[in-house]
Amino acid sequence: MIPKPPQRGDRAQHVVDHIREAIITGTLPPGSALRQEELAATHASSRMPIREALRTLSAEGLVQLIPNRGAIVAPIDVEELRETCEMREAAEALAIRLSVPHLSNAQIDLAASIQKQIETAPPEELGSLNKEFHCTLYAPAGRPRLMAHISSLHDIADRYLRFTLLHLDYIDRSTSEHQALLDACYRRDVEEAMRLTSTHIVEAGKTLETYLRKHLETRL
Amino acid sequence: MIPKPPQRGDRAQHVVDHIREAIITGTLPPGSALRQEELAATHASSRMPIREALRTLSAEGLVQLIPNRGAIVAPIDVEELRETCEMREAAEALAIRLSVPHLSNAQIDLAASIQKQIETAPPEELGSLNKEFHCTLYAPAGRPRLMAHISSLHDIADRYLRFTLLHLDYIDRSTSEHQALLDACYRRDVEEAMRLTSTHIVEAGKTLETYLRKHLETRL
DNA sequence: ACACTCCAAATTGGATCCAATAATTTAAAG
DNA sequence: CTTTAAATTATTGGATCCAATTTGGAGTGT
């Protein structure tokens, strides 16, 4: 799967990135077992980097480590989705508040171009593009730890996107909300940008929750 | 150092707890090297559990992993302190908002008793007791991931406490602010509890920052 | 048919071993 | 005497090995 062993010392990091991607996209479905031997084979390495990778992913909340029984992809549940959206609201309202005073027009233009890409992108790229859009607006705040936290929350939330990706009303609403947020940024209206960020996240969370409940019903 | 090898499977966890404690209290000073062989010896184990522990602590932000060069205790700096306080403010305002509607008098009494302990506790226990006080008030919110996040932020912030522990005005102010917060909780005044939580964290942050700057000056 | 026990296979956790990289010391030259 | 180059040492990253725990199944008794 990974032909060229990169540099010594990065092995675990590459494995982390690869597994994270697979979990977010659903290639590795929630609850599925992560066998060290198997992962080692697909990554052409021994079990050791895998074990370190699993520990990192556990800290990110994407896998659960069960002592003496191995790791599973973190199950999805409505509670987690709700809590993640609440935390996103708090963290991103803070981020946009700190960022807007330092935003340049060029930086907002950059975010706007990402939004353009979103509108024609294939569904499987929506999650990462959406994260990129928001983080572009937060970057001028100069808060690396806050950014990492937000990024991690996006990763968790993106797992739930899979269930509503095809629903155009979700994308349309997101698009118009992004547009309004960009406008507020161009006007350097901190209060409005915070309000829009909050409602954007809350509304997206509600929509996701609705579709997730529907999805879970059909499964049971 | 750890006489009894616990159960198979939580070796790394015990190592994590032990090193975390040592970093927070300053036993392991900021920037100091963490040699795997050395840590393995003091924990009567091989290097493997150490390596996993270091990865976990890296995710918590308490150590820095430098590829091919090992781990160091995360340096302290004013930027991190500020960012951590900002994140605490956002996360804990959310936590108290969600918690107050579910708070029982018994739970508030419990927090009040912890505050009593704080007032007579030795300096080295102030950090963990303070965390316990706040988390007791947040527990009824039923948000385990938010709690873990807040707990992690406290751990980081507590490293900076060491520099001001002896300053009584800091403790006095904290005590009166805790008291006001308890009052607001007894009245179930969500808005006031949020406001008090925010200012409590912000003020504590400012005080810590002031003393940290002084401390750094004397070092240079 | 069901439950229980015991045994074998699978799998993880920890120890050890080896190779690659970084740090340090020594040696040499200007 | 200082500075640079080479070799030696220390330390990490990854592979392999072994022991402990769990899982699944076969067999037995009720």
Task: Give an overview of the whole structure.
The structure is a homodimer of 220-residue chains. Chain A is mostly helical and 220 residues long. The first copy, chain A, is built from 9 helices and 3 strands. Chain A has helices at 11-25, 36-42, 47-60, 78-99, 105-120, 126-138, 144-161, 168-186, 190-219, and strands at residues 33-34, 63-66, 70-73. In chain A, strands 1-3-2 form a 3-stranded antiparallel β-sheet. In chain A, strand 2 (63-66) and strand 3 form a beta hairpin. In chain A, helix 1 (11-25) packs across helix 3, helix 1 (11-25) crosses helix 7 (144-161) and helix 6 packs antiparallel against helix 7. The longest helix of chain A has 30 residues, at 190-219. The first copy, chain A, starts with 10 loop residues before the first helix and ends with a helix. The first copy, chain A, binds a DNA duplex (30 and 30 nucleotides) through residues 8-9, 11-12, 35-37, 45-49, 51-52, 67-70.
